Input
Amino acid sequence: MSTAAIATHSGIEGRSPTQMAWQRLKKDRSAKISGSVIAFFLLLAITAPVFTWIMHTTPDEFHPETLDPEFATNPLGKFGGISGTHWFGVEPRTGRDVFLRFVYGARTSLTIALAATLVATVIGIVIGLISGFFGGKTDLALSRTMEITLAFPSILFALAITPVLENVFEGWGLPPGNGTRIPVMIFVLAMFGWPYIARIVRGQVISLREREFVEAARALGASKFHLVFNQILPNLWAPILVTVALNIPTMITAEAALTFLGAGVIDPTSDWGAMLLASVPFYSINPTYTFIPGFALFLLVLSFSLLGDSIRDALDPRSSR
Amino acid sequence: MLKYILKRTFIGVFVLAIVSAVVFGIFYILPADPARLACGKACTPELMDRIRHTLELDQPLSVQYGRFVKGIFAGRTYLAGTEAELNCDAPCLGYSYQNDLPVTSLLMDRLPATLSIAFGASILWLLVGLSSGIVSALRRGTMLDKFSQGIALGAASLQIYFVGLILQFIFVDKLAILPIPGYTSPFDSVSDWAKQMALAWFTLAFLLSAIYSRLTRAGMIEVMSEDYVRTARAKGLSGRKINSRHVLRGAITPIVTVFGLDLGALLGGAVITEYVFNIPGLGKLSTDAVANLDIPVVTGTVLFSAFFVVTANIVVDLIYSALDPKVRLT
Amino acid sequence: MSAILKVTGLTKHFSGSKHGFFGNADLIQAVDGLNFEITAGEALGLVGESGCGKSTTGKLITRLLEPSRGTIEYEGQDITHLTSKELKPIRRQLQMIFQDPYSSLNPRHTVGTIIATPFKISGITPEGGVKKRVQELLEIVGLNPEHYNRYPHEFSGGQRQRIGIARALALRPKVIVADEPVSALDVSIQAQVINLMKDLQKDFGLTFIFIAHDLAVVRHFAQRVAVMYLGKIVEIADRDTLYSNPKHPYTKALLSAVPEVDPDAVGARQRITLTGDVPNPINPPSGCRFRTRCWKAQEVCADKAPELLQVGRSTVACHFPE
Amino acid sequence: ATPASWVGPVPAKTGATKGGTVTVITQADFEHLDPARNYVGGTLDFYRLFIRTLTQYRTVNGKTELVPDLAADLGTTNDGGLSWTFKLRPNLKYEDGSKITCEDLKYGTMRSYNDDILDGGTTYAKDFIDNPTNYKGPYTDPNGDLYGVQCSAKGDEITYVLTQPIPYFPYVTTFGSFTAIPKAKDTKQNYDNRPFSSGPYKIESYDRGKQLTLVRNSYWDTKTDPIRWNYPDKFVVKMGADQNVIEQSLISDSGEAKTSVSTDTNIVTNLSKVLGKPAYKNRLFSFLSPYNRYYAINVDTVKDVNVRKAIQCAFDFKTVLAAAGGTNSGQYANSTIPPSIKTGYRNFTVCERDVIKNPEAQIAKAKAYLAKASDKKTTLRLAYRDKGVEPLRAAAVEQALKAAGFTVIMDKYPGSGYYSTVSKRGGDKEPDIVQTSWAFDWSAASGIVYALFDARTMTSTDAKSNYSRGNFADLQKLFAQADQSAPAAQEKILGDIEQKLIQDKAAHISIYFERSHMMSGSKLGGVQIDNGWGDLSVIGAYVKK
Amino acid sequence: MSNFLEVKNLCINFPTDDGLVKAVDNLSFSVEKGKTLGLVGESGSGKSVTSLAILGLHKGSRAQVSGQIFVGGVEINAGSESDIRKLRGKQMAMIFQDSLTALNPFYTIGDQIIEAYQVHNNVSKAEAKKHAIDMLDRVGIAEPQKRADDYPHQFSGGMRQRAMIAMALSCDPSLLIADEPTTALDVTVQAQILELLRQLQKDFGTAIILITHDLGVVAETTDDVLLMYAGKAVEYGSVRDVLAKPQHPYGWGLLTSIPRLTGDPDKRLAAISGMPPSMISVPSGCAFHPRCSYQSTVGPACLASVPQLLPVSEGDHHLVRCHLDVKTRVDIFNNQVAPKL
Ligand SMILES: Nc1ncnc2c1ncn2[C@@H]1O[C@H](COP(=O)(O)OP(=O)(O)OP(=O)(O)O)[C@@H](O)[C@H]1O
Ligand SMILES: Nc1ncnc2c1ncn2[C@@H]1O[C@H](COP(=O)(O)OP(=O)(O)OP(=O)(O)O)[C@@H](O)[C@H]1O
Ligand SMILES: [Mg+2]
Ligand SMILES: [Mg+2]
Ligand code: NI
Output
């Protein structure tokens, strides 16, 4: 323990556990690299319209002239039609620009995955807190709900429920098409994502609830609100952050899988899972087309996983590998 | 113990009942009318009504559900007493009008392919995952460890559909050493069965062994720092004995747990794998059923998968209690 | 002098793990029918082996746990079943110091926040502002007031325990329940904390319930000592009486088991070695709970639970007091 | 005299030998094998191997014609087309050697009236045959009789009494409700799994969704049949393979694929690898399929003809066809009646241009029409099916419509049940444009125009296959006229109706006729293109030695 | 009689992210057969680390161990893992601090003792089991036959500690290291355990190292005492010398600060001021100087140089590491410390 050493440092401002974690994270090389990759993809997604302007076309615009008129499944030129005007080539059958579809796909994929993570996290935290803090019958009911949710074959059920929810959401006045589909996907992904977070939060709350500093606050007559929000919640951010960081890649994968299986965003909106799905018939004729979204997906998931690992290590140095 | 199993089974049945009720309820608000689907190209309103009656869509949801549940346990008939009476023996999970077959027989038909995938892949990934994880943990910090963990980290970030296509491109299209994936019964030809399954096994095992390798390594390393391992050393035990009797024994419990759950989920249909490799298993059956809105089949497969998940949970708990003496089943 | 705190028939039963789906839960008789009172300004020591119900008693008194039976009177007022709202003004006067200096401070709060929490919760703004008062408190417990913005992990165990004490003192309580405040501390630090608490008791006229398992520590702090065994008080007496003339066999055994530091004195004392461990509170022995380890036990001990009775200057629950 | 093509046996194929197994790979199981329930091109063609109907198509040396099958002639009519009498061939036998009788033929039609149990199938028998007693089928009405079908006393002739003159009736009798089924062998809905054979093959085993095996029917006599060959010992249908898998295995031509053929798989993705390559010349079958891909503009919801014309002009035929695979995958069309149906085909313009020569979108004209419109409906709901390239085609359309200033709501429907959903009338999500297709039931305008454009098929809630919901008084008058006309004249009127509907009413846009490219293995001979329903046929397939 | 255990100039360092932890610095001591050495010091002073070094358990970890350790004449620090392994259990055994984590939760108590016995004795499982039951009986577990099949979590803390002892003793080791065997236990149970150890030593003549921070336990059980502070020995001698006539200011502080059952309870405890030192930046010179009341008496030497561990008087077995000269020390002890004891 070096606690004693620090306590004798001069200087009045203490370093909070968060600040210490941040400092450790900044020193972590794998965090830096993976963070940069993620930042790069995010930037790409945010600045997507800029590329539309640079490339003088949109991700949806058909370019039949770039295709063999007889066999429209074959882009003219090498490697799926890679050229100065179409950096990643063009899509078979439509001639849509693959680079723009890729960039806009990053937008869709990231938006859905991040939004789903956010929703799942919020639900997970609330339910986990309630379940863990109040215990008893509430806990039993909520825990059973989690168990039942986890018993659902998630992919399958997500596929099955998508059209149903779409109908429901549209009934609430959402615009048809992707205007409904995207919220539905977020909902479906969150629906199967929250129990994981809730379980962790619940476990943490149960262990924190017994900690003496919570007792101390209770001895002072603190309200439940104070206990949950002032005493317990600040101690949950670290595990929640770790869970969330490690959940994002799962969500990205799940989003792509859902789209790949056909319950995802609707053409012409681009999405990496949809790009992969669309590339399947061409994988042997035009491997570039499969490779681009597949590799990007791999890189993004890997980066998020690495960053998640790093965050966990930084927040809890003892648990490191 | 028996009491515990009974209790868990009771809870499991409860969970399945809720799952089935939810699935049932959800299709009630489905946008497309199931009767319309079954009616075909030349449909008349009278025919629709008759189909609606056959499908029992004219009954209240609770009646439909009640009959469905009865069918599972006691079997049932559709359109009892009419000319077109259809028998569906227990366990009856519904009747697919698009396939003109009881859902149960469809499921049983597809089960062998899914079983083949699940067992083949799980043996592979356990072998590869555990052994590489153990070696990594024992040779912690060496190049070998870094190399295998690097691969594992990468592999864990890959997607089945992406790896599957790449492998298929290499082994089927370019090298032509494997046939196009599919399913042949091993009773017809073991070699065809294995060759056609090989890609599915490799792909699934590649991704999952990565996860198991990491899990095993982390578990082993954690156990290595346990005080009881130090005690074992202090007794004078040999390294091998310590690793096998103490370290591995301590690390195996979470692995077995995860394995049980993974296998349970897989038995309910390796949805993406089957989809990618076009293997006629439960997963393919269900994705097709979803695409065709073949509701009895969707309901049946969801329930069947949930059954595997729930069973796996119970089995895992039992194994867990067998493996961890601290866990007392009550 | 009247009692500031009076406990009558205080009982706490926990329901433990359930047996089977429809089975009954085990009943843990953690605390069973305690009777004692404390006069203002007094320090009452509570000793006993692990699991005998000391902490439970402390938490019952501070109303962190709901008593199963019995009453607690504070300054003549029955506070056993007050609602949390009614309890609020009383809580201020009844504070607690915890055993584990590592888990009793919220790791995400600064020392300033931790010590200011009592003000925040009770909605009191002390004269000169919260910050000034917090810094005063830090000084009182012997910490640098400038450490206001530091986090608990930056302090050693002894310092953390001082922070915990400062928090307990914040609202100027009258009664403090200290649950093994020095058990987790190193020998060299332990004395610092005991001295500090003693000074505070004197300076502020505090009433203390001092829980410990170390008889020597209790002797240096408390004026009166209660010995607990398996959820019951077996003996209460003022300090000198108890240590020089223990009446209950258990007290006697306990005292004799404390190792003597002085090498010359080793062997001078007659040692009573008890066999076995403290029995399970789920299924305590009938009659006198100590009888299973008692060398004086006779048939009557199994049949009848002894009452707490005045014997000489002590109050003892034993069929055969010394 | 009886034409030579009406008498068996069918001329032998040069180089063909008997024996071996022909494997048919399909993506999906046959929807129905029960002839009364089947309405799908590929199956109609395939089940001729074990089912004989009153009349049937015969294709010899690339020439397809309608010939009598169970019948001995193509029927005669004397009362202005209200009743048709067919002579029956003598000495026809089922797979158990029992005789095929006129009563069986009548029963085959009668049971199709029980379409509550035997759903699917064509409705022609029920639509056309006179049924004054409102007969409901043998299951519902065990003692009833269908008045409109009558056997002669000797049982050598069968007469159909119709409710209206149907000049093309002998075409209608090619369908499965005009086959012979002995009442004793009728197993109701289970008949679907094991039809009783009257053709050269019979069912040995049928594992739904997986495999169907046909073996020789020894009671079938080649001399009685002018249509069917019987070369292989066995036909095995393997079902449930993926489009891509079939394409690849047929191209790679290894093992079993050598003697395989797929009759429901159009080579699309890998087309460039095989089309025009000498190596595949003999086993790649390219032909214009009867399938016409078209878009129906819903006149119920898009009321203003100028808006409809704007839509027509906005359509870019080129991107739509590119999405479908390019000019090798389809041939531009102006109408749904293919040019091969000479009597009904019209060469007319769409949006004042010859679309075949000039398939690009006419955006300026589209905008001009839209400007002219009084009821400016600019938000359009496009319905399409989530199957194959259809979403891409829809995207191409969306794009073109957007360019012309429309807002498009993309309504994707699941693969099956699509047609029944988009034909629903009323409702808040009724499509404005339906992406769909049609293949003629027989090679005549009457096999197209009646089904697609006749308002009389519609009910108030269901447009049936009239997806554009057209109900124009002037056109209906023409339909009435057509009903009363002789075949040739009728065809001409129907051609007029289509031209008017597309050119003037702008209720419909045909984009292209699909080009089929299907493959067989290198060791398979005798696979032929059959123009009856426009399919690849295995009826004459043989295994090369 | 010669020393069974001989430790010379033992240094143990741990390189960590924060710096080098000098856990043990130049430690020398010895234990004879049949004798008990008490290793005393506050938390973090290097007691456990030293005991692990004696068993050679730092091998394969990041610890840097230097110096010499002889157990029965074999040098531990120079030997290979496989050589040392043969000594463990038989020549030297250890009772660990926390019996709950030190016992493998997955095996029964019996199995764990059987395992320990079979390492060095080529016997059948049945025989080993008999031995294990014997051992449990010897350490005072009631119904050993039945309890041998229990898992550690089914034992109470005191029973677990006894099981640990049974395991450590199963091969009759010549040297037994007991690392705080009673710290987590109640006094009544502690008394039982200490009694047990005493009895065993009497029967087998085992050399024992007893690690504790409880001076009472030391006084009652040990022959020699090694007082550690910040990884160094500050005082080393017989129990009598170290506890009754301590010569180091840390020893004085310790002895006067502990509450006792005798003496005036109302007298203020003489606490040692300050806090235990960081092991990474150990105070310069005498590591105790920041907390030492006699720093001013000595002057700058306290900060400047590390005092030597020297005999109190020529040839004496009582060694002290302090800059104070002997006379001053005796004065201080007699006048200021002794009255407080
Ligand atoms: N929340 C609880 N639920 C169930 N049992 C409890 C609970 N809290 C305490 N107990 C049980 O009550 C008994 C008394 O516990 P308590 O913590 O009061 O003992 P203690 O004297 O403070 O012991 P220690 O010296 O170990 O702190 C124990 O057997 C304990 O297991
Ligand atoms: N593996 C390690 N890595 C780094 N430092 C270590 C390690 N093990 C021990 N230390 C450090 O070495 C020092 C001595 O530790 P040791 O465990 O010997 O203390 P101890 O005297 O046994 O204390 P306690 O009474 O708390 O058991 C401590 O400062 C500790 O932090
Ligand atoms: Mg306690
Ligand atoms: Mg230690
Ligand atoms: Ni620190």
About this structure: The CA atoms of residues 8 and 314 of chain B lie 7 Å apart. Chain B has two domains: 17-103, 104-329.
